[in-house]
Amino acid sequence: MQGVEASLLKDLFINMTILITFISLITQLLKNYNLEESTALLTKLFFGFLSGALGIVLMLFTMPVDEITIIDFRNIPIIMSAVFGGALTVYITGIMIALFRLMFFGFNTGALLGVVTALINTVGCWLIARTLLKTWQKWAYSTFFVLFASSFTLTYLLKDKSDFLKIMLIYWLSYALVSAIAYWYLSYNNTANKIYRRLQKESTKDFLTDLNNVRQFDLLLNNAVHNALEKEEHLSLLMLDLDFFKKVNDTYGHKEGDYVLRELSKILRTSCREFDEVSRNGGEEFPFYCLIVPTLRLCV
Q1: Cβ(102)–Cβ(134) under 8 Å?
Q2: 295 phi and psi, to 5 degrees?
Q3: Which of 198, 250, 260, 293 has the highest count of CB atoms within 10 angstroms of its CB?
Q4: Is residue 157 predicted with pLDDT exceeding 80?
Q5: H helices within the chain, ranges in order?
Q6: Left (φ > 0), alpha (ψ -120 to 50) or beta: where does 277 sit?
Q7: C-alpha to C-alpha distance for 90 and 77, rounded to whole angstroms
Q8: Residue 221's pLDDT is what?
Q9: Which CATH architecture describes the domain 214-292?
């Protein structure tokens, strides 16, 4: 294969490597957040900005088919931000891509249609992402929607129809393949990040009560003692132990005993101030420390 087809494949491959690299970067920067469940405004803004920046970089390495027509994978970041980010994220991404398409490549028919297509894809992917479909289905439907919308634009813009079928075939096959690879890689990284967050939490939290475990309590207590000595403050260390708790387990079973521990943990958390630390050292032992402030009450 020679000419425009070979050049198109080369540039689309470069686009794919940029896309995969950015997915790695984005998932690493946001590894502490569940993108599908997070409602934090800053997280969504940051995700939208990163996805928009990815679309812009993909356009910088675009494949010019003729004087006003370019082909790249800029719409995959729109799909990604719609499926995993939500409304605010996808609209930030879509608007950034649309504005860059217009400002960087100049005001011409191709740029104007590119802007319209980007906005249509943004709205379409957002509507698909709002459905109750499974995540992979949302991604698949969004991919086909983007392909159809972009194909109409390409069909109108391409004046030389001699290589039209070859270009469209390469575009469809490569786009579908790269979109599938991007979804697989993004899902893989999201799963790895979920495991990372779970292990990070389990290393500091008690699995039953979600209080600090003994390892985390020792670390926090050492820091608190050090700060109290430096600032000449007073620190109160208390130990709560449930007497005869074994009788609860023996009489009602361990399930009910676990329920008692969880409810007690809720009471301790709500009874303490924000800067007091409560932990569970195992069994029915609950140590906690309180910073003594004369004008305020202790945590118990």
Answers
A1: no
A2: -85, -5
A3: 260
A4: no
A5: 4-29, 41-60, 75-84, 87-105, 109-129, 135-157, 164-202, 214-231, 245-252, 254-271
A6: beta
A7: 8
A8: 84
A9: 2-Layer Sandwich (3.30)
pLDDT of the residue at 102: 85
pLDDT at 4 (0 to 100): 58
pLDDT interval class at 1 (50, 70, 90): very low
What are the structural domain ranges in the chain? 4-202, 214-292
- Cα separation, 91 vs 256, whole angstroms: 48
Structure tokens at 180: 């599938």
Spatial distance between the Cα atoms of 248 and 264, rounded to a whole number of angstroms: 14
Q: Give the residue among 227, 244, 246, 235 at the shortest CA–CA distance from 288.
A: 235
d(CA 71, CA 120): 17
Total residues found in the chain within this entry: 300
The CATH code belonging to domain 4-202 is 1.10.1760.20
In sequence order, the β-bridge partners of residue 235 are 291
pLDDT at 182: 95
pLDDT digits (tens, 9 = 90+) for 173-210: 989 999 999 999 999 999 999 999 888 888 888 888 88
3-state secondary structure of 296: coil
